[in-house]
Write a structure and sequence with these properties.
The protein is of the alpha+beta class. It has one domain. The protein has 2 helices and 3 strands. Strands 1-3-2 form a 3-stranded antiparallel β-sheet, with helices on one face. A hairpin with a 2-residue loop joins strand 2 and strand 3. The chain starts with 10 loop residues before the first strand and ends with a helix.
Length: about 70
């Protein structure tokens, strides 16, 4: 079992479109940030599983070029 005191609280996805995606996600009410080509989500205890699923569904659509 991992030592959760050493774990970070971010999900990072690598994409050359990180900057564009941050803006597109914000337009859909999904807040995240980027560091270079890393699209970063910071799940927190007050973020629901439904919100995380919505964010990942939109990211999937962006990756497929559907939006």
């Amino acid at each position: 079992m991992p030592d959760f005191n050493l774990c970070a609280g971010f999900l990072s996805l690598t994409t050359a479109k990180a900057s564009d995606w941050v803006a597109q996600l914000a337009g859909r009410g999904i807040l995240c940030d980027r560091r270079g080509d890393q699209l970063r989500f910071g799940p927190a205890p007050y973020v629901s599983m439904a919100q995380l699923n919505q964010a990942l569904n939109v990211v999937e659509d962006l990756a497929k070029g559907l939006v």
